Amino acid sequence: MENSWLRAYARRTAGSRPARVSARVLAVLLAAVVGGWLGMTFGAKVDTPVGPADIGMSLAPSWSGETVIDVRPLGTLSFNSHDGPLRLDLTIEAVHPEVAEEILKNPRWADRLPTTIEADVIAGLRSLVVRAALFAVVFGFITGLVVFRRLSRAAWTAAGSLAMVAVLGGVSALTFNPRSIAEPRYTGLLTGVPSLVGSAEAIVTKFSEYRGQLAKLVTNVSQLYEAGSTLPIFDPDPGTIRVLHVSDLHINPLAWNVIKSLKDQFKVDFIVDTGDISDHGTKAENEFVKEIGSLGVPYVYVRGNHDSLTTQRAVAKQKHAIVLDGTAATVKGLTIYGIGDPRFTPDKSVQAAGDESTTLLDLGRVNAAKLAPREWPRSPSTSAPDKIAADIAAVHDPTVGRGLSGYVPLVLSGHVHARSTELLPSGTRLMIQGSTGGAGLRGLEHDEPTPLTASVLYFDKSSHRLEAWDDITVGGLGEQWIQCERHIEPDPGRTIFPESPQAPPSPTATGSGSPSPAALASGANVPYASEVSDGRRHGTGRKP
């Protein structure tokens, strides 16, 4: 069929010699591409020993370049290792127990393993490239022979297929990114996340040591297989503080299962919940928050717009709970400043009046007057209160967090049910969590259930700065999958400074554009949590 199409195209362009030459060249190029892709698809596969394992390597067409390691039965690790339409697949076919045991028990392997792994991988890649080129030439020649039925053109087609492999290989080599191994994307079983992804501190302190990271990855895999039927033990780094960021549970019981599992697997030191633990803020929903006491670690909470003051008081009664509302607390060495959401709007069918975003931004700016980054000098005046050296600010709505820009290194928020992170011009990082509760019942309103999301944050114990974080995504109701993506903070020690040279408004100021918290709660055109109790709300959105 392809042969008939090419001949028909040649007949239509047979009116002039240049047209005929162009048609032939185009036909040869098309046949070369087809033959080359077929050759790589069916022939670019090799098995090679890498350290204690036998690794299957293969090349496959892909819209974006990446390397995927299949670690059965735990899941896959993906790396943005290069550009170009080629995907390198690595599959662990077998692990030799005697070699793995020697790696784990013999300290001399620690020095030899990086060099050994690098040599094995390079040898395997060379064999893979040679095999890909040979099969591309063979399939290119066969394709040219079938299409053109002439040896000369078949030879040109084979040469074109070889050139295509050379170009793709060259692009992949030139765009190779060794840093990608520090930021893997894991998809698979939850229990395999910490051991496969590795420790954040080791990745940060040895960020440029590609060979060492590759060896660590192989060692982690060896530990998993050597453990057999038992789960591997994740050894916490003594110099790292682990924080689990959750948000918008919306009384979904599955959220507690995810939180407990992540707490245990990642050995987190405490949890930060940025609000909407409830759905309508009623007393009946207070039973849901009693799970906080069973977690066994500090649970820092700020109120969301679906949480009433009744909800906040119920959380405060729980063991290990720390409720922040315009206040700060130091937990495991980190100072967290929290701002409860001033609104209470569980009914989305009633829209609040007024410019809500401006009001929320001003609330953040007012609270910014209380804060200063840890590296800033404290006020020398004894008549003025010292600024709070907050390491983290916890808010519900990210709009409030933007008002804190330049006065705290990290702002955690939620509310929008979509995960994102942004490094603001001031140096403050704004992290927005999705919904750890899968948006509650709203998560079932779409074609696919909303996934449950959370993040594990890694802080340096001495500098109190964020060094890395893992974004965890769990399939929604009825789905059974998990993805973990590692991110490295590129400049943990960056300077934090306000975006505007003007100082933030005083906490007692009442002028236009910078209202005090008291003015916000009494004069804004939105219903506030201080105006309602027991989950009741004013339907007009105004003060009664």
From TrEMBL:
This is Calcineurin-like phosphoesterase domain-containing protein. GO terms for molecular function: metal ion binding; UDP-2,3-diacylglucosamine hydrolase activity. Pfam families: Metallophos. The chain crosses the membrane at residues 21-40, 128-148, 155-176. GO terms for cellular component: membrane. InterPro entries: Calcineurin-like_PHP, Metallo-depent_PP-like, Metallophosphoesterase_sf. Residues 508-524 have a biased composition (Low complexity). Signal peptide: none annotated. GO terms for biological process: lipid A biosynthetic process. Keywords: Hydrolase, Membrane, Metal-binding, Transmembrane, Transmembrane helix. Residues 490-544 are annotated as: Disordered. It comes from the Bacteria. Residues 241-418 form the Calcineurin-like phosphoesterase domain.
